[in-house]
Amino acid sequence: MMRHKSMLILLLLLSFTLGYGVLATTARQNAHHGLIVSPPLEKAQKIYGSSGDRTDREKPVLLRHYSEGAPAPVHPILRWTRVDGAVMYDVQVLRQMEPDEKTGDIAYEPVMPEQRAYTNGIELALPDDFQDDCFYYRVYGLDMEGRRVSDYSSIEKVPLDRMAPFVEKPELLSAYNTGKGSVLLYPVYDWFPVPGASQYEVEVLDSAPENPGGIEPSQHRIDVYRTDSAQKYDPRPRYGNHPFYWRVRALDEQGGPIGVWSDAQPFLTDPDTPYTVAVLGDSISHGGGSVSYSPADWDFSYLSYLDFPAVNLAQSGDTSTMTKDRFDADVLPFRPKYLLILMGSNSLRNGLGADVVISDMEEVRKKSLEHGIRPVFLTVPPVNPDNIKRTFDDETAPDWQWQIGRVNRYIRSQVHIDITPGMYDSQGMLRTELAFDGLHLDPAGKKLMAQAINAAWPDIENLPDSAWDE
């Protein structure tokens, strides 16, 4: 499936940036233009919404806390929980005003325009003229159109230590080998965007760097990538019986370093690990969704919800032919007993047709059996052309439903698991609440997939050898 590229983030930034205007957090209007007025903070849970807001919506929960004893640096990292349905977040950065003498209400005023984040966290750069020793902030989630889909988080105070030494060092988001679904053949590297960075340099290493906290390339470098966004899909498979490492540094407009390299993060995809199950396919299997969440966010990986471990051999962007052509190089080193196969979505929605996809599936099936691997096909989910067009400005083949239907009839003639129940809307398209971009299933959709697989898996394991006979 298509990757979440920096151009999309740029389009979102241009389309959905909001001014801060008048902010009110009580039902009554506030005479102070631009102020947020609230009752005392112990009543905060009841008041962080404009007049008429729903009160039953999920709200972000702030995760990173600073204190007087452990204050924030000049570029604090703010983190909060992900909200279902949010593809981006706005952060309100505030200054506390004096309490009202009569009511005791606490007022806040914006310090800067709302800051847009495309994941559930941000590295914040305060205005140069902000000299307070603390600030306050709160967060809320938005959908693709910039409409609020959550209540405000609580307001949090952030003490600052302006005198503490500060060196810019990117904070990483990817964390591999941390549980089910967290072993990828094609890793994705992502981190919080660095204020002022024009681009980034990602370094892949075959050993831990000899110069942590430095600015020079490591002598263990085996690959390097430049990217304009705070995310990089590795186009090369990374596997072996020793860990790889990756790290990133921010660069300015001239290509010079901003600060130092991030900490180096190890990851291991070892073909000698006795994986019973491997997964092959495109980005539905690789992971990611809600426009900007990558395959390294495990909420967006159906493998993380399975009852059994599996190694992820999928690659975003694959057509069915690309998946077929990768088989020998990417599947055979792992020697799985079962191979879960979901392929063809990109080919079908782009008009290549069912004949090509079925032919590619047949070759993958035969190759699997030749090497003692039991292929288990997953039915191809529907798509939502309207949402794909709205998100990616990409057209879908007009006969996609008929073509997917033909492929799924072939799949149902093989050993398979039907993952599509509950995915269709009344028009036979992918339900918006399962995939906001019309293509990449969000956590609710990934859970549906896993539930179907988990329910069918005992029967798959009990099938006789003859079930896979030619």
TrEMBL record:
Presence of the UniProt keyword Nucleotide-binding in the record? no
Q: Tell me where on the tree of life, at the top rank, the source sits.
A: Bacteria
Q: Which positions fall inside the SGNH hydrolase-type esterase domain?
A: 279-447
Q: Which InterPro entries match?
A: Ester_Hydrolysis_Enzymes, Ig-like_fold, SGNH_hydro, SGNH_hydro_sf
One annotated GO molecular function: hydrolase activity
Q: Which UniProt keywords apply?
A: Hydrolase
Recorded protein name is: SGNH/GDSL hydrolase family protein
